[in-house]
UniProtKB/TrEMBL annotation:
Gene3D superfamilies: 5' to 3' exonuclease, C-terminal subdomain, Cytidine Deaminase, domain 2
GO biological process, one term: proteolysis
Keywords: DNA damage, DNA repair, Hydrolase, Metal-binding, Metalloprotease, Protease, Zinc
Species in which this protein is naturally found: Faecalibacterium prausnitzii
Entry superkingdom: Bacteria
Domain (MPN) ranges: 106-227
Protein's UniProt name: DNA repair protein RadC
Keyword check for Oxidoreductase: no
GO terms, molecular function: catalytic activity, acting on DNA; DNA binding; metal ion binding; metallopeptidase activity
UniProt record similarity statement: Belongs to the UPF0758 family.
SUPFAM superfamilies: JAB1/MPN domain (SSF102712), RuvA domain 2-like (SSF47781)
Keyword DNA repair: yes
Annotated PANTHER family: DNA REPAIR PROTEIN RADC (PTHR30471), UPF0758 PROTEIN YEES-RELATED (PTHR30471:SF3)
InterPro entries: HhH_motif (IPR000445), MPN (IPR037518), RadC_JAB (IPR025657), RuvA_2-like (IPR010994), UPF0758 (IPR001405)
Length: 241
């Protein structure tokens, strides 16, 4: 047992040195998971546990997406480890929100998309939200609207308007994801956006953008000239396309 402990200690020391020298992203999936398991397993052989978890759930992301109950079906995974792994996606999303708040403004579409991708990370179904922004493009509220299915989320206009008013600002960004598709708007997306622009315009709220996400890409209706503008004075919908 003493010899095994020395072997594990030496292995962990080498792993930590690799992370310090080359970064966490240099690790293979089972090695990255092994490092996470150090948090709640001071003495166990986490290498074997990491391999068994990935074999059971498919990949690194699959492990973190698994329920605590399912995680504990793997030998050696107790309640503390299951809880830690299951919380990791939420921790990452919370970090992204705090980082944005610390750094301030989301003035560019790229900054908006980076922030939103963090919020939607790991989502297996379509979801929709509003970001309420102040005049300096700082996030004042993050308002989740609805969860849908793997390929569809339907929004009631009144719910979008209510969320925008709750946000307390005069400009918002709408976002939804396509977890199993491409970052392009459907006909339904374009029509729904027009209806939302009109409804928000009537309560003097500007839809700054509608961004569609996948895990790695985004589509900005504003940048791609697909975002209409409602002229409250004339009641006309101005379309750049």
């Amino acid at each position: 047992m003493a010899e095994d402990s020395k072997i594990h200690t030496g292995h962990r020391r080498r792993m930590r040195s690799r992370v310090a020298e080359n970064g966490f992203s240099s690790l293979e999936p089972h090695e990255a998971l092994e490092c996470l398991l150090y948090i709640t397993n001071a003495r166990k052989n986490t290498n074997r546990m990491a391999h068994e978890l990935i074999d059971r759930f498919g990949d690194f992301a699959g492990v973190l997406d698994a329920s605590e109950e399912d995680l504990m079906t793997v030998e050696g995974v107790g309640p503390a480890t299951a809880r830690m792994l299951h919380l990791m996606p939420d921790v990452c999303r919370y970090y992204t929100q705090c980082r944005t708040g610390r750094n301030g403004c989301l003035k560019t579409t790229e900054q908006l998309a980076e922030h939103l991708m963090g919020l939607f990370a790991g989502a297996a179904q379509e979801r929709a939200l509003l970001l309420a922004l102040d005049s300096r493009s700082r996030v004042r509220a993050t308002l989740w609207l609805k969860d849908g299915t793997s390929d569809r989320v339907s929004l009631a206009i009144k719910d979008v308007v209510a969320a925008a008013l709750k946000g307390g600002t005069d400009r918002v960004v709408l976002c939804h994801n396509h977890p199993n598709g491409v970052a392009l708007p459907s006909r339904e997306d374009i029509q729904a956006t027009e209806n939302i622009v009109r409804a928000l315009g009537l309560v003097h709220v500007l839809l700054r953008d509608h961004i569609i996400l996948t895990e790695t890409e985004y589509f900005s209706m504003r940048e791609e000239n697909r975002l209409p503008f409602y002229d409250l004075a004339t009641g006309e919908m101005l379309r750049p396309y």
